[in-house]
Design goal:
The structure is a single chain. This protein is of the alpha+beta class and 147 residues long. The chain folds into 2 domains: 39-103, no CATH class; 108-147, no CATH class. It has helices spanning 2-21, 109-124, 133-141, and strands at residues 40-43, 49-56, 64-69, 88-93. α2 packs across α3 (133-141).
Length: 147
């Protein structure tokens, strides 16, 4: 009898522990049960939304124009600090799945790395000797035709 009570108590404790450690269900910005969208978003060709914000001086008066891409532990709002003082226009976006941008269900570590290459390659160029041949070729052929 004591063993049955102990097993029941243990099972109840395990159920409570499981429920206590489960994360809450995700809420997507702009959906019916999600938080409201507070910044500008553009609709991508695959139907997802990408959130962005513009900071600093107006684009026509800026000395420099910067596209700020945040890291893993931040969002588009961290670009504000020095923009106006330096006469800089900054366009900052939330990466897919962060803050108000829709997640990309097809995203993998490889596609994320190739997206970084696609951002840098037009500045450097695809035939730079520092780029590995297979990486530059793969990123080049992933560009959309209008790029």
């Amino acid at each position: 009898m004591f063993k049955k009570i102990l097993v029941m108590f243990f099972m109840g404790f395990m159920q409570w522990a499981y429920q206590a450690t489960r994360p809450p269900p995700s809420r997507i910005y702009g959906s019916a049960d999600g938080p409201p969208v507070t910044t500008t978003r553009i609709k991508l060709s695959d139907g997802r939304h990408l959130s962005y914000k513009e900071y600093g001086v107006p684009i026509d008066k800026a000395h420099y124009k910067i596209v700020y891409i945040h890291g893993f532990d931040s969002c588009k709002h961290y670009a504000v600090d020095v923009a106006e003082g330096l006469g800089v226009y900054i366009m900052s976006n939330d990466r897919p799945g962060y803050k108000e941008s829709d997640p990309n269900p097809k995203q993998t570590m490889k596609s994320l790395a190739l997206a970084g290459v696609a951002l840098i390659a037009p500045v450097v160029n695809y035939w730079c000797p520092g780029f590995p041949a297979n990486l530059s070729k793969e990123a080049y052929y992933q560009q959309l035709p209008q790029d």
